[in-house]
Amino acid sequence: MRRPRNVPANIPATTTVKPTAQSTTQSTTKSAAKSVANPPKVTIEVVAKRAGVSKGLVSFALNNRPGVAPETRVRILQVAKELGWKPSLRARSLSTQRSYALGLVIARNPDVLASDPFFPSFIAGVESILAPEGRALVLSVVPDEETELKTYRSLVADGRVDGVFLSDLRHGDPRIPLLAELGLPAVTLGRPDGPSPFPAVTVDDTPGVMASVAHLATLGHRRIAHVAGSSTLLHGSRRRAAFAAALREAGLPEGQTVETDFSVGAGSDATRRLLTQDTPPTAIVYANDPMAIAGLGMAHELGVRVPDDLSITGYDDIDFCRYVYPPLTTVSAAPMAWGRAAASTLLALMENGSADDVDLPAARLVVRGSTAPPHG
Which residue did the predictor score with more confidence, 148 or 57? Predict the structure, then answer.
C-alpha cells in the first residue's frame, strides 16, 4: 500500500491522530482571545436581525429619516446602542453628502511650526470637541500664502471638509473673501481688521502684553526691549502695538523692537543682538514662549544671569515654561480652551447657518522666576 505524503514512517497510514485535551484547550483559549481582541463588527444587518426589522428600516431610523414609526425607531436605536453600533464615516459621508471633517490650513515653515507648542495644544482642544461628534480634523501645512489659497480651493472642489478654522490672520486677509465666495463655513481665530461674514473666536492679546510691561516697569526696569513676531500677522502687530502703548503709559522711552518669524532660532539671534550692544536692555518681552526660552539659553551662553542681570517674559504659557530655569514669567492665552471654543462655534455655524462671536477671557500675566528688579 502506498503511504500518503507527509505521513511519518512510524505512524500507520490508517491511524487518526486525536488532539490532546491540552491542545484542544490551548486552541479554544487562542480562539477566545482572538475573539476578544477583534470583536465582530456590528453592521446594520446585525442590528436589523436583532430588532426584527429590515435593513432599510434600520438605515432610515439611524439616519433620522421619515417613514419609521416612533416606537420602532426607539427600539432600533436602543438595539443599536446595546450592540455598540458605530456609524461608518464613509457611509455617513456618502448618504449625507458631507465629509464630517473640518480643516485647518497653516502657512508656516514646518521647522518653525515644529518648535511652537501652541498649535498642538489648540488642536487638542479642537479634537476634544470633534471626536465625540464623530468628526475628523484635516490638517494641512503649506509653505506660503499662495499655496494656502490653492489648498482651500482644492478642499472645496474635492468635498474634503465641511468648514475650516482660519488662523494667523493677516492685514486685509485674502482668505476671508475667498472662503465666502467658495461658500465654505469658517471661524476666524481672532478678529479680522476688515469686514468678515464669519464668527470670530478671540483672545485679546493687549491686556497680557501691557501687563508684562507694567510688571517690569514696577520692578524698576527702564530699558525694555521687544522681540516681536512678524508684522504681516495681526497678532504680531497687535502685540507690538500693545508693547508700545504700555511703555507710553508707564512713562518710559520707546523700546527697541526686533522683528522675527516667531521661531526659536530667530529668538536666539535677536537676543544675542540685543545683549551684545553697548547699552543692552535690562528686560526683554518676547512675542511667544519658544523665543523666550531660546533667549534664556542665549543669555546663559553670554554669561548674562536671569533674572539678576536680565528679566524675560514670554507669551502663551506653554507647559515648558514652568520647567525651565528659572521658570518663565509669561502670558497665559489658554490655547486648549481656544480650540474647544473654536470647534464648538464652527459646529454651531454649520448646524444653524449662523453663530455669534466668542470673546474668551483676556490673556493674563503669570509671574514666575524669570523677572526681578534690575541690578546696578
Answer: 148
Phi, psi of 117 (to 5 degrees): -75, 0
Looking at domain 101-203+337-359, its CATH superfamily turns out to be Response regulator (3.40.50.2300)
Where are the domains positioned within the chain? 40-86, 101-203+337-359, 206-333
Q: How many CB atoms lie within 10 A of CB 175?
A: 22
Alpha-carbon gap, residue 129 to 132, rounded angstroms: 6
- With cut-offs at 50, 70 and 90, classify the pLDDT of residue 346: very high
CB 355 within 8 A of CB 345: yes
pLDDT attached to residue 59: 74
Residue with cell 491540552: 22
Q: Is the confidence at residue 284, as pLDDT, over 70?
A: yes
For 62, counting Cβ atoms within 10 Å of its Cβ (0-12 exposed, 13-18 middle, 19+ buried), the class is buried
Q: Which of 229, 15, 222, 196 is nearest to 118 (CA)?
A: 229
Count how many residues are written for the chain. 376
User: Quick check: 12 pLDDT over 90?
Assistant: no
Tell me how far the alpha carbon of residue 61 is from its chain's centroid. Answer: 34
The reply to whether domains 40-86 and 206-333 share a CATH topology is: no
- Mean pLDDT is lowest, of 92-96, 106-110, 309-313, for 92-96
Q: Looking at domain 40-86, what is its CATH homologous superfamily?
A: lambda repressor-like DNA-binding domains (1.10.260.40)
Residue 215, number of CB atoms within 10 A of its CB: 19
Q: How confident is the model at residue 60 (pLDDT cuts 50, 70, 90)?
A: confident
170-190: per-residue pLDDT in tens? 999 999 999 999 999 999 999
| Statement: the pTM of the whole predicted model exceeds 0.85 | no
180: how many CB neighbours lie within 10 A of its CB? 15
What pLDDT is stored for residue 95 in this prediction?
Answer: 46
Options 3.40.50.2300, 2.60.40.3450, 1.10.150.670, 3.40.720.10; CATH of 206-333: 3.40.50.2300
Residue 115 is predicted with a pLDDT of 80
Residue 215 has which C-alpha cell? 510688571
Q: Where are the alpha helices (DSSP H) in the chain?
A: 21-37, 44-51, 55-62, 70-83, 89-96, 110-114, 118-130, 145-157, 175-182, 206-219, 234-249, 264-275, 289-301, 335-352
